[in-house]
Design goal:
The chain is of the alpha/beta class and about 220 residues long. It is built from nine helices and eight strands. It has helices at about 15-25, 30-45, 50-60, 90-100, 100-120, 130, 145-160, 165-180, 205-219; strands at about 5, 25-30, 65-70, 70-75, 80, 120-125, 140-145, 195-200. Strands 2-6-1-7-8 form a five-stranded parallel beta sheet, sandwiched between helices. The structure holds 2'-deoxycytidine-5'-monophosphate. 2'-deoxycytidine-5'-monophosphate binds next to helix 2, helix 4 and helix 8. The site of 2'-deoxycytidine-5'-monophosphate has 14 residues, from helix 2, helix 4 and helix 8.
């Protein structure tokens, strides 16, 4: 059984998917981390996202792979483990900007589909239910209000001791949502057969339990 979880930035997809994967004994595949690793490649070389020819020309040759260490996904970029480098806001924004290009998507979708063939997976991203795993047995569209998502990110950064501004984070999130939802290639949208869960007023455990219930019904 494959479980697809899509939704905008900060909806809680990865927290929920990680917990579910542990409970169910599935492999968690964080596809955003793959787009982030590719984004890091371009950032480190000073190649702007708007340079379509350079980004598309290089995308296919960039070696992105994943492996699991103690059950945690690690992303390798040309053989280097870049897990610790890809969580920055600039990397997330660059990932959103380069993910509009079909050449980038084709490369990473092929990798994601290959992984899903080898095991039961819980995969999260923007196009999993609509494009990567159209036959997934369970599809969830997880969302929350922009304010709730920005506040969660704000609290996370504050806990890490990083200074930040709540309204700037919300603006960033709204811009990223708009780009992810309005691109021509596999935009973020709820698949026709996906169930909508709004996590604005729900705790992590409540969302996990709701999805577990759906999985039990589908088995
Ligand atoms: O989930 P995330 O914030 O790590 O994703 C970073 C960006 O990567 C996101 O804004 C858009 C892109 N992305 C995508 O286009 N398709 C996916 N399946 C996952 C991420």
């Amino acid at each position: 059984m494959n479980i697809a979880i899509d939704g905008p930035a900060g909806a809680g997809k990865s927290t929920i998917a990680k917990k579910l994967a542990k409970d169910l004994g599935y492999i968690y595949v964080d596809t955003g981390a793959m787009y982030r690793a590719m984004a890091l490649y371009f950032l480190e070389r000073g190649i702007p996202a708007l340079d379509k020819a350079a980004v598309c020309g290089l995308a296919d040759g960039i070696d992105i792979s994943i492996l699991y260490q103690d059950g945690q996904q690690q992303v390798l970029l040309n053989g280097e483990n870049v897990n610790d480098k890809i969580r920055r806001e600039d990397v997330g924004n660059m990932a959103s900007a380069i993910s509009v290009y079909p050449a980038v998507r084709q490369k990473l979708v092929a990798l994601q589909q290959k992984i899903a063939k080898t095991a039961d997976v819980i995969m999260d991203g923007r196009d999993i239910g609509t494009c990567v795993l159209p036959d997934a047995e369970v599809k969830i569209y997880l969302t929350a209000s922009p304010y709730t998502r920005a506040k969660r990110r704000f609290d996370e950064l504050k806990e890490k001791g990083e200074g930040c501004d709540l309204s700037a984070i919300q603006k960033d999130i709204e811009e990223r949502d708009f780009r992810d939802m309005h691109r021509a290639a596999s935009p973020l949208k709820q698949a026709d057969d996906a169930l909508l869960i709004d996590s604005s007023e729900l705790g992590i455990d409540e969302v996990v339990e709701a999805i577990r219930k759906i999985c039990r019904e589908r088995q």
